[in-house]
Each structure stands twice: as C-alpha cells, then as structure tokens.
Amino acid sequence: MTNGPKGPFHVSRAIIPETFWRAGRRQPTTMNKQNFQPVKIGVIGLGRFGRLHALTVAGLAESELVGLVARRQESLNALTFELPGVPTWTNLEQALRESEAEAWIVACTTASHVPVARAILEAGKTVLLEKPIADNLAEATSLLPLIRPDSSNLMLGHIVLFNSEFQQLRDEVQRRGSIAYIDCVRHRPASIVEKFPGENPLHAAMVHDLYATQVLVNRAEPTHFSAQYHRTGRGEVDLALAQLQWDHGPVASFAASYLTPAGMAPRGFDRMEVFGEGWSARITPNPRPIELWDTQASWPLPLEIRTDPSGPTGMMAEELRCFCRVVRGRQPVPVGATYTDAIQIQHWLDNLAACAK
Ligand SMILES: NC(=O)c1ccc[n+]([C@@H]2O[C@H](COP(=O)([O-])OP(=O)(O)OC[C@H]3O[C@@H](n4cnc5c(N)ncnc54)[C@H](OP(=O)(O)O)[C@@H]3O)[C@@H](O)[C@H]2O)c1
After folding, report:
1. Which DSSP letter does residue 285 get?
2. Domain range spanning residue 64?
3. Phi, psi values for residue 229, rounded to 5°
4. Angle between helices 48-59 and 315-327 (to 10 degrees)
5. CATH code at 255?
6. How confident is the model at residue 1 (pLDDT cuts 50, 70, 90)?
7. Is the CB of 50 inside a 6 Å radius of any atom of ligand 1?
C-alpha cells in the first residue's frame, strides 16, 4: 500500500491547527528548584501500569499522589495496602469534585481512555494518557475540541521516549542526521497469546517503535506502508511485521511479536538500530544489562522502571517528572507525546493494520 503526499494523514492534518505541529519541539527547561510546587496528581485505572504510575508519583519530589480511582473496590484495596492514606474513589465524577488533583494519569483499559480523559479534560485538569489514545481513530479525534493547540493539557504516556538509551540515540541522530535505515525489534513472551487473546502486537508493542521512529524522522509522514501478520493455529496474531518508507528519506522495518519462550527474559527483548551516512547505532533497552544466576539465569530488571519508595528511577520516573514540568508550564509536551503525534501514530497503525489484513 502506497500513500502519496495526500495520503490518509493529509485530511486529518488539515483539520488540526498548525500550532500543534510547532508544539513540543525540544527546548531547554528553565527549572527553578526553589519555586517548583509539587504537582498534585491522581491516578485512574489501577492495573499493572496504573500501580507503577501511582508508586512513582508517590516517590517523586516533583509530585504528590492525592487520589486513586478504580472501577472496583478490590482494586483500590489492593493498592492502598502499598499506599496507605491516599484518598480513593470508585466514581470518577465524585473524585473530580472532591479531590485536590490538578492533573490525572489515565491508565485504565484502552476502551475507557477517551471517555475517562474527556471527563477529566472537561473538568479543566491536565491529563497524562496511557498509550494508545483509543481503539480507533474516530474515537481518538473526538477529543480534539478539548485539547489546547500546544497539547499542554494532554500528554501521551509514550514512555520509551524517556528511556536513557533512546534519549542518547535521539541526540546522536540530531547531531549526525541523514538516516538511511531504522530497524526495530520488540519480542514479547509467547504466553501473552494465551493470557490476553485478541491482543495484537502491532497495537500493543510495535506502537512504541512507531512513535520513537516518529521522533527520529521529526514527524515526517511516510510515503509507503506495508505490513504482514503471522497467526497461530487458532488465528491469533503472534507476529506483526511492518515497513515504512519516506520519499528521499529512510526505510524503516519493524517486528513485534509474542514469540519468546519461557526461558528468555520475562519481557522478551527489544532492539533498535539506526544507520546513517558513515555511522550506525544500536540500543538494546530491554532487558536491562543485569543478569543473575542461581539454579537458572534470570533478568531481574526487564524494563527501565524502578518504583523504589526512596526515589523512583528510570523511564517512568523521567516521564512523570516531564509531565510535572508540563503541568507547571516549564516545558512543552515533547515531540512524540502531543495529541497530534498520537493521532499521526493512530493513522500509521490503521494503515499498517489494513495492509496486514
Ligand atoms: N506505556 C506502556 O509501556 C504500557 C505498558 C502496559 C500498559 N500500557 C497501557 O496502560 C493501560 C493499562 O494497562 P495495564 O496493563 O495496566 O492493564 P490492566 O492490568 O488490565 O489494568 C487496567 C485497569 O483499568 C481499570 N479500569 C478499566 N476501566 C476503568 C474505568 N472506567 N475506570 C477506572 N478503572 C478502570 C481496571 O479496573 P478493575 O480492576 O477495577 O476492573 C484495571 O485494573 C492500557 O491502555 C495499556 O495499553 C502501557
């Protein structure tokens, strides 16, 4: 499938103000430690990722955890054991009325992202919304009237942008330029196919490499999309392959799968390679380079996320520090994490899914 300059993204870009495209460029942050008031943050959706967000918010100097919202009381009970004393609600509207939160992290199931984000934005609060923005483009674009032109009231939880190796790679690309080829590999355990039937590695895993690539090409729109799936005997997608190409620019290839066996690292492995003119670079951010052996080998730190109460570290801590600076107006939402960036990625996903079918 090939899209010329007037490809599918052309239409949506036309309806989105140009100011969105100027927003989020990297600028030096002018953080004044003396007058930075910790941002009062609430978290809604307390599953695996919501728990990590809540623990990280509670541990950072830049933030204060002031509310937890779940659908079920049991989800609140499970977390309040780890985070005693934080006010809790099972009703978002009530939480919005009663809590002190200036900003919210939305980490509930993807199907609830848009209605939950809409309620918070309508209440005038700032949102960090977990990826992906929605299950489909129409739902994602329905938020547009509520988003400020510079996206300063909505940042996407594009966490890989805050991984240390990726940040260095991005700087190298900016310094050296002229990319010829980007190759991204993101393999996750084969057990996911059994545990989460219907979860497509294109949407759940490859999305990270797509927004990371969007940053490396500075939001340029590809002119060629192609993709393929491999399916299990039961018809579940366990491998997504994709290729993007830019006219007079790079070619990029992506593999995202649920194929790694139980003996491998718990979150599989990730690799990103970039080739330029006279240079190339490779990052392998997952698993982190600590290996441990007893009766067998293990990788105790798959992703760069540590929620140590004495000081969270890693990419989630950096993402949430950045979010706090955005809430305080100290920096724009970074390239790759604005609402328009997320819409562009949703277009890429829709194109690739159509190609793979
Ligand atoms: N950035 C990343 O790398 C990354 C990684 C993993 C996940 N994610 C994203 O983060 C989100 C959560 O993923 P997860 O793995 O944490 O999922 P999960 O473990 O299934 O947790 C989802 C939670 O959302 C809650 N929930 C659903 N609808 C809700 C609503 N309307 N109000 C309040 N709570 C609601 C559920 O609550 P109950 O338990 O009460 O039913 C459940 O605890 C997903 O969108 C996912 O794509 C991002």
Report:
1. E
2. 24-158+324-337
3. -115, 150
4. 70
5. 3.30.360.10
6. very low
7. yes
Centroid of ligand 1 to alpha carbon of 324 (angstroms): 21
- Over the stretch 247-287, which tens digit does the pLDDT of each residue have? 989 999 999 999 999 999 999 999 999 999 999 999 999 99
Confidence band, pLDDT 50/70/90 cuts, at residue 34:
low
Q: How much is the pTM?
A: 0.90
259 shares its domain with 180: yes
The answer, yes or no, to whether any atom of ligand 1 lies below 6 A from the CB of 107, is yes
Q: Which residue's alpha carbon is nearest to atom 47 within ligand 1?
A: 131
Based on the fold, state whether residues 154 and 32 are members of the same structural domain.
yes
Tokens 């609060």 belong to residue: 125
Q: Is 319 in the pocket of ligand 1 (CB under 6 A)?
A: no
Task: Give domain status of residue 16, yes or no.
Answer: no
Amino acid code (one letter) for 180: A
Q: Which atom of ligand 1 is nearest to the CA of 50?
A: 16
CATH of the domain at 54: 3.40.50.720
Q: Which of 108, 160, 161, 208 to mutate to test the pocket of ligand 1 (most atoms within 8 A of CB)?
A: 108
CA distance 326 to 198: 35
Query: Measured from the CB, is residue 131 less than 6 Å from ligand 1?
Result: yes
Please indicate, yes or no, if residue 319 is contained in any of the structural domains.
Answer: no
Average pLDDT over residues 140-166: 97
Indicate if ligand 1 lies below 6 Å from the C-beta of 72.
yes
Record the tokens describing residue 348, joined without a space. 């890429």
Q: Is 252 in the pocket of ligand 1 (CB under 6 A)?
A: no
Mean pLDDT of 211-224: 97
Q: 223 CB less than 6 Å from ligand 1? A: no
Task: Identify whether 227 is part of a domain.
Answer: yes
Total structural domains in the chain?
2
Domain match, 141 and 200 both: no
Instruction: Indicate the pLDDT class of residue 7, thresholds 50, 70 and 90.
Output: very low
Where do runs of H (alpha helix) occur along the chain? 8-15, 18-22, 48-59, 73-80, 92-98, 113-122, 137-141, 164-176, 191-195, 201, 207-216, 315-327, 339-356
CA of 72 to the centre of ligand 1 (A): 12
For ligand 1, atom 26, name the residue with the nearest CA. 108
